[in-house]
Amino acid sequence: MTASATPCFATEGLTKRFPRVTALDDLTVAAGTGVTGLVGANGAGKSTLIKILLGLLPPTSGRASVLGYDTATQGLEIRRAVGYMPEHDCLPPDMSATEFVVHMAQMSGLPRTAARERAADTLRHVGLDEERYRPMGGYSTGMRQRVKLAQALVHDPKLVFLDEPTNGLDPQGRDEMLALIRRIGTEFGISVLVTSHLLGELERVCDHVIVIDGGRLLRSSAIREFTRAEQTIAVEVEEGRQRLAERLTAGGETVVTQGRLLTVQVAADDPGRTYDAVRDAVCDLGLSLLRLEQRRGRIEDVFKEPVA
Amino acid sequence: MTTEPTAVIHDIGYRHYDGVRLGRGRATLALGVQSLRGVFGLGRTARAKIMPLLLAAIMLMPTVVSIGVMALAKQFIMPYPNYAVFMQPVIAVFLAAQSPYLVAPDLRFRVLPLYLSRPLTVTDYVLAKLSALAVALFGLLAVPLTIQFVGELLVDLPGPPHTADYLGALGGAVLHAVLLSSVGIALASFTPRRGLGVAVVIAFYMFTAAVSGIFTGVLISSGRDDLAGWALLLNPFFLVDYAQSAMFGTAPVNTESAPPGIASCLILLAVIAVAVTGVLLRYRKAAS
After folding, report:
1. In chain B, where the domains are located
2. In what order do the strands lie in the sheet with A289-295?
3. How far away is chain A from the Cα of B133, in angstroms, using its nearest Cα?
4. Which residue has the higher pLDDT, A290 or B57?
5. Which domains are seen in chain A, by residue range?
6. Cβ–Cβ gap B22/A111 under 8 Å
7. Residue B154 and residue B151: Cα distance in Å, rounded?
8. Searching chain A, which residue's CA lies closest to the CA of residue B30?
C-alpha cells in the first residue's frame, strides 16, 4: 500500500462518551488510500467513528481529519467529498431506484442533467438493470444494498464509508458485494472504508485492516503484514510425528504440535529453506507423508494473539 | 423479419465526474422543488395526486361561482380578504393531508441520515420543507384570488375594481402560508407515521377552531364582548385575518371587538417562531 501525503482519514486520541457508554476510547489511527477494513464486534464503535468522521457527531475529546479536513470545523467540505452508505435501511418504498439516486445526486450538488447521467452510470456499475425503474418497496435485500451503494457513489466521491455493506446478504450476494467493493477501490480509484464484524470477509478485499474492540484500537496494519507474519506450513505424517518435530527444531525451525498436525513457521527471510528442511527431514527419517500444505494466516488470529 | 443487431454496448468502465458541483443553496432549492411537486402529487403515484388536486379544485369553486355571479348578475359577492377564512376547512384538510407527506417518510424510512451525510445541513433541510409547503399553500390561496381578480377586471363591474382588497388578500395569503406551514410541519415532524401526522394536524385545527368558537360564544353571551376578539385569535385563520387587517388595512371577517392589531401581529410572529424553533430542535435531535 502506498502511503499518500494526506491520509484518507486520521484520528488522534479520539474519545466519544455517551451518557451510559464509552463508544470510542482514545483511538489514534490513520489509513491511506485504497480499501481499508474496519473490523469490530457489534458495539465496538464502528458506526460512531463513521459519524464522527462525517462531521455529524462531535467527539468528547481528541481530533479527527478526513482527506485533510478537520471534522470539527470542516464538516461541509468533508461531506462534499465523501459518500456514505449507512448500515440501516434508508430507501423510501414508493420511489424507483433511478428517481432516488438522481435526487441524492442533486442533494450532493450535481445539476439535474448530470445527476441523471451519473445515476444511470452508477446503477449500471452496481449491477441494477431494468428493475431500477420499479418502486424500491418490492426490492430484495441484495437490490436494496446495491441502491444504497449507488447513492453513496453517485457524486463520484474521493472516499466512501460503507457501513456493514454485506449485512443480510446471502453467500452469493456477499461475494458480489465484496467484488464490487474491491473494484471501487482499484478500478474506480475511490478509497473505501468498509466496516464488518466478519473478519474473513475483509481479508479478501482490503489493503489495510483496522481492528477495534470496545472503542480501543487492537491492531492496524497492511493486510500483507497480517498474513506474512502468519505464514506457516502444516505437515501431517503417519507415524513419527515426534521425531520429525525434534529433527526440524534441531535444524532451527519453529515447530508447534497441533493435534495430529505439525505447524512449521516459514522463515520470513528465506521461505525456501523451511520447505527444503521439511522435505529433507521427511525423506531422511523415512516417514509417510500424508499432508503438506501452505497455511495462510487469517485475520481471526489477531484476536487469538496477545495484544502487542 | 429480424436482422442482426448492429449496435453493440461497450463497457467503458468507470468514469469520474469532473463537471460542476453546485453549492448548498442549489441543493436546498432542488429539495424544495422536489418537495413542492410532491405536495401536489407530481412525480408520485396516481393515488397520491387525487387528494391535493381534488382540494385545489374545490378551492376554485367559489371563484367560478363568484365570476359567474359577477358576469350574469353584475354583483360582487365574495370579498377577497374573506376568502381564506371562508375556505378554512378545505385549507386545513389540505394542510393535514400534505404536511406529513413532506416529513414523515424521511423519518420513517430513515432517509434523513442520507441528506445529512451530504453538504445539506439540518437548517437547509427544514428550510426546504417549510418553503415547499408555504409555497404550496400560497398557491392554493393566491391562484383562486387572482383568477377572481382577473374575472372582475374582465367583467368590468360598475365602480372601481377592488385592487387594494385583492393585494391585501395576497398579503394575507403569505401570512397564512407561513403560519400554517410552520405549524403543520412542526406537528407532523413529531411522528414518523404519516397517518398519525394527518390525524394530529387535523385534530389541532378542529381543537383550536372549537375552543375558539366556544370561548367566543360564552364571552359574548356573558356580555364580555371586549374579550371575545381575543378568544377568536385561538383559531389560526382568525389570527391571520386580524393580522392581515392590521397590516394591509382589510376589513376583518369578525367585526365585533377586534383585539389591537399589533397584538395579533405579535401573536402571529410568536406562534411562527415557536413552531419553527420546535422543528429545528426536533431535527437537531434526530440528526445526532
Report:
1. 24-287
2. A255-258, A261-265, A232-237, A289-295
3. 19
4. B57
5. 9-226 (3.40.50.300), 230-304 (3.30.70.980)
6. yes
7. 5
8. A106
